[in-house]
Amino acid sequence: MDAIADTSRLSFGRFAVLFAALFALAALPVICCDTLPLFDYPNHLARMHILASWSGSEPLQRYYEIVWRPLPNLAMDLVVPPLARVMPLAGAGKAFVLATLFLLAGGTALLHRVLFGSWSAWPCLAFLLLYSRALLWGFLNYLFGLGLALVALALWLALERHRPSVRLAVGTASALTLFFAHLLACGLYGVLVMGRAGALAWRRRAAPRSALVELLVAGIPFLAPLAILVLLTPGSAGGAIAYGPMLRKFDLLFSVFDNYSRPFDIAGFALAVIALGFAFQRRWVRLEPSMALPLLLLVLVYVAMPSQLATASGADHRIPLLLALVLVASSRWTAPEPGLRRLFLGGALVLFLLRLGVVGASWEASDRSYARLLPALEALPIGARLAVAYPSEAINSQPTPLVHFPTLAIVRRDAFVPTLFAFATQQPVALVPRYQALADRLSPERLWSAFVGGGPPLDPGERAALQQYEYLVFVDRTPFTVPVAPPLVPDFAAPRFTLFRIAAGDGALDAPVLAR
To answer: Is residue 153 part of a domain?
Structure first.
């Protein structure tokens, strides 16, 4: 027990057993659920189905097209469709989620190993942070890229004494890989690499020329991704920039613990912060000095990062997890008392198991709810056209999210669902022009307003657009009632999910609304 509790002296074999046991526990919610209750996940899974099955499906070819471009958001798109050709799509999606969790925890452990020269139980604290708010939102490309960034940073540090040519080659390959995984993950990796280069130059009291060389070796690998972004990536220079309240930055730090039980999550977060702060204050835990500057730069980037950056929403929401993981990787337990080590790590293990139990219970309940709703989608005709209605406030992570659940009709029935993620700047899947025009004509919020929210009724053009669909589904965060009125014919009803068939009218597939 004391050998395992000594965070600085684990053999690789003992570390591997400990890591494997913790990862097996962390993987249980993913393995045991049929439909993962991650907010964006059904939409991502629908896109994976299109990429894997488009060539063999006439309905998919009718509604969607595949346009491969050099996009900095392709991690899942490059990994899951090939897997889906040799295993069920649901299994391929879960494998990607598990790989993401493995990279986040494993990258933290590997970075710690490079920094301190030994395997340790200390970086396994990363398992406490895997089920963060970023995961529950379904930011899977970003999280996968973040795990790769931790691995790439560990590799970069391991090569610090190698020739500049070797470091430039490896650094360029890492930067390009991260660029195509996710742009923000690539950028944050660059911040850490440049911070590390600056810290080493300062610690070595390097001459200006040597310091400049070190910074150039660290920075040049990012020229290739920058050139691709500026010259080849569509829409790289556009998009809105918006900031939230500055005080919100403090609240967002809690997102690394925030999942399903607010009182329990707040208590766990407070306990973890107080315990870690106390351990640092008593010098039981110490930071690797050369990682202070990278962490400081990461904090400054977090403070300066807007909430909306071009097409990326919640940009600043995504940074606290990386801050926490790098802090764990860059620190180690140094107090000699074995009793303190056992108490600290034992408490962390108990908190991990309790958090995992809360997640598991919530996911099991969500899975049961989804199982009751899926037959409604599976009863749709092959190639059905399904409009979606929800209020703007429904776009909020919660247990059993439903906003993107209707996109599973694409997976199950090769349907047309206009809320599919198909942005030219982010995904290699697009709606064909005539169906893009239809999707643009009727937003989910407008349909909700007209039928449920007490807003103005649909105008003639909007009614004609609605007639191009065969079904209309309403979803929300809370139970609701849809007044039944033509052209809606009830088909399936649940408290937060109601499906209607659209009675035939004067609309035709070649109506002007589709030619706009």
So the answer is: yes
